[in-house]
């Protein structure tokens, strides 16, 4: 039984790492703009397809594919913010950018459906079927890579936010956009940086998720609801909370599968979400909205 | 006289032409239209069904409309029913109100089919289903719904019996998506297998949003010796399950002993996507590409010419749906009521998936539509002579 418990902890860590990668982008954007980005899932999917095609059509390596997905995601974030969200925000109606994210999501999903078709792609990497076994525990090299890359990305993001001027400026804007502007910080520039980082993370998340989930134009939507739940449980816009919540949800999924049934996963996860909203609406970590990001 | 039987070695076009000349009914000018509504999943995780069905339909239309049938040409209007009850119901109502079809084909997913059946019955338009397996579709006896594929009970009883008697399986783990079809298929296997003396070690249902199956594979690996794992999912999740079971060392593809069993849910090409993990997988397919019957060989040749690839069972059963409607029109049907009556009177229609003869509940009773395939080392298929 100990082996099974440890194995499921490993499985939960992998799934949780993936969720964190996706949820971090959502929480960053929410922290700065107090805006939910429904198109985030489609950036994940586009990143996965970019990585898939680099590897399977152009013979690229997996690491190069991850980098490409990161770049594609970031570029899409820049483009959509510059062309759609930024002009809409200038009109002063908070609802417009929110609705635009829904429109963008539907557009991207159907564009990918037209371009890539509905049939699932088998996104295998050279590491998908390499299995490491230690005692009774196993993990594929692919999943090990997911944990390592996710940990690296999370660490770099954390360091960026904590120790760089721009990271500190981002936190300042999230706490009080007007006051930050008074001390010379350009909020629009920082919003653009946020979109680029969040989307780049989503694209990279797609490259990591692609070999794990079922790669279709709807792939991202299958994880986005869980990512929203993680953002809420972690504390809207709170990076530390999102990381902790993502890993906890991953573990809950694994142990629910083992000791109850996978059909119970959503019941358990969303019951926790409801409990958090009722008992601790600020989330696991955040005490005050102002401390987010 | 059935279209396919009268020209077994010819394509649908040749059959239709022959029957137009020598059939019992006079052949008016081919300017009348039989309107066929197609409710198929074109979006969402089941959209591969719709994409492949459409290919089979288009090929059949090419063949049949070259000459027409009894002066009629067939026309198809597609609507996206999304493999889900609500969009399927909306699409069905839209189709009925705007297109006013004489007959409707679809859906693929049982939940969606169950949702559109009342719409069809209320409108008195026959529904010809090829891909949904839930027993609820035909068991109550719906006069307007017909199904050409074996239902979940026919498939489930057959595969459970074969697992017990031919594979000597005594223990099983059930894996299925939490839908009418998934639950129903698993239940039939469970009842048949346990009644024969087999034991179900775990009964694991999951939602369509589950992505990582490593946790499920871990749980199964911890159960000890498992002989067979009947699996009822769409292709995407099926791929991940097969790979996760192999990685956990449970199935033959990963050096274990368990054999995965499947029914007609998975399309052709699944094994190539799953890779070595699929080794030893035994599954029912609705279409046997090694079938030597003339109409099957002609279908394969025509399909390859049109699409530059071999047909799948989804292509094949959609082709048969149109072929069966053409057969009914040849026998004199010209509107919804007469098409319904013609379908009910069908005897031994010979399609590319097998033959069709409906019982009193409009369920095809012919078992030659069940073909067992085993995945070999090189990921090719070996046809198992179990039916």
Please write out the topology.
The complex is a heterodimer of chains A (293) and B (387).
Chain A lengths: L1 H32 L6 H17 L5 H29 L4 H22 L14 E4 L2 E4 H23 L1 H11 L1 H6 L4 H23 L11 H14 L4 H21 L5 H15 L14
Antiparallel strand pairs in A: 1-2
Helix pairs in contact in A: 1-5, 1-8, 1-9, 1-10, 2-3, 2-4, 2-8, 2-9, 3-4, 3-8, 5-6, 5-8, 6-8, 9-10, 9-11
Chain B lengths: L2 H4 L5 H11 L9 E9 L6 H19 L6 E9 L4 H15 L3 E4 L3 H14 L3 E3 L15 E3 L4 H14 L5 E7 L2 H17 L2 E8 L7 H8 L6 E5 L2 H13 L11 E4 L7 H5 L7 E4 L8 H14 L5 H18 L5 H9 L4 E2 L4 E2 L14 E5 L5 E4 L3
Parallel strand pairs in B: 1-2, 1-3, 3-4, 4-5, 6-7, 6-8, 8-9, 9-10
Antiparallel strand pairs in B: 10-13, 11-12, 13-14
Helix pairs in contact in B: 2-3, 3-12, 4-5, 6-7, 8-9
Low-confidence stretches of chain A: 287-293
The N- and C-terminal alpha carbons of chain A lie at a distance of 40 Å
- Encode the helix/strand succession of chain B as letters: HHEHEHEHEEHEHEHEHEHEHHHEEEE
Give the helices and strands of chain A as they follow along the chain. HHHHEEHHHHHHH
Name the pair of protein chains with the most residues at their interface, and give those residue counts. Answer: A-B, 43 and 43 residues
* Rg of chain A: 19 Å
Structural class of chain A: mainly alpha
Strand order of the largest sheet of chain A: 1-2
- Largest beta sheet: strand ordering of chain B: 7-6-8-9-10-13-14
Assembly state of the chains shown: heterodimer
Question: How is the main sheet of chain B built?
Answer: 7 strands, mixed
Average pLDDT, all residues of chain A: 87
The CATH class assignment of the largest domain in chain B is: Alpha Beta
